[in-house]
């Protein structure tokens, strides 16, 4: 098994490299598996009926959603934990604190050790395309296999206000050029974390 990436020669629209073509990495997904396909496969592997598996799936989903909205970090069996949070700007004056500081609401998933280890062991294969969509190269990555911790900044440091009252962690991206999460098309749109933006866990 391997994670397939594509490196597409893309015209950069923002930042220091604006106007230049750069090869930008993005995930090359085969397809999106539907809920019914997952339930069918889980039923086959567990030996229970599809109806029972559907009922368990729905019940687990309802419990996770209900508890997450109450401020809990909820275990997802076999995968990790999930919680809700927000991305918000910081201010120096308490009088300015208001919900208007929130820029987006987030779902934060923290994988368990088994998932992290599996990701670390999985090979990376990269297919490179030029600006005209022509295949120019295929490579197998020899990266270190580091797995990002969603409870820490991308650079590995803790947020300034970590703890029960929320994490003040801005997503800064990496390398300066083409920074942040690239998405499936590697479109050079990352979360850069400006003006003290931070992630705050809902309580």
Written overview of the protein:
The chain contains three helices and eight strands; from the N terminus they run E-E-H-H-E-E-E-H-E-E-E. The chain is of the alpha+beta class and 203 residues long. A four-stranded mixed β-sheet has the order 2-1-6-7. Strands 3, 4, 5 and 8 form a four-stranded antiparallel β-sheet that branches. Helix 1 crosses helix 2 (50-68). The radius of gyration is 20 Å and the shape is flat. Residues 154-197 have low confidence and may be disordered.
List the defining traits of the structure above:
alpha+beta, four-stranded mixed beta sheet, flat, four-stranded antiparallel beta sheet
Q: Any idea what the shape is?
A: flat
Q: How far apart are the first and last residues' alpha carbons, in Å?
A: 39 Å
Structural class: alpha+beta
Cα-atom Rg, whole angstroms?
Answer: 20 Å
The secondary-structure element order is EEHHEEEHEEE
The profile of the biggest β sheet is:
4 strands, mixed
Count of alpha/pi helices: 3
Helix content range? 10-25%
List the SSEs and their pairings.
Elements: E1 2-11, E2 21-27, H1 35-46, H2 50-68, E3 74-76, E4 80-88, E5 102-111, H3 113-121, E6 123-129, E7 135-140, E8 198-201
Parallel strand pairs: 1-6
Antiparallel strand pairs: 1-2, 3-4, 4-5, 4-8, 6-7
Helix pairs in contact: 1-2
């Amino acid at each position: 098994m391997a994670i397939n990436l594509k490196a597409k020669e893309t015209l950069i629209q923002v930042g220091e490299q604006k106007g230049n073509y750069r090869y930008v990495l993005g995930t090359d997904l085969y397809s999106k598996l539907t809920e019914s396909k997952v339930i069918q496969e889980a039923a086959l592997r567990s030996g229970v009926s599809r109806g029972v598996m559907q009922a368990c799936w729905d019940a687990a989903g309802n419990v996770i959603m209900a508890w997450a909205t109450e401020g809990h970090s909820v275990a997802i069996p076999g995968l990790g934990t999930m919680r809700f949070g927000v991305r918000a700007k910081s201010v120096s004056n308490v009088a300015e604190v208001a919900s208007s500081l929130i820029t987006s609401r987030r779902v934060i998933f923290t994988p368990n050790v088994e998932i992290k280890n599996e990701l670390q062991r999985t090979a990376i294969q990269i297919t490179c395309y030029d600006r005209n969509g022509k295949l120019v190269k295929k490579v197998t990555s020899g990266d270190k296999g580091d797995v990002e911790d969603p409870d820490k900044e991308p650079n590995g440091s803790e947020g300034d206000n970590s703890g029960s009252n929320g994490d003040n962690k801005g997503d800064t991206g990496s390398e300066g050029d083409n920074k942040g999460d690239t998405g499936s098309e590697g479109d050079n749109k990352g979360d850069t974390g400006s003006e003290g933006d931070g992630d705050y866990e809902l309580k």
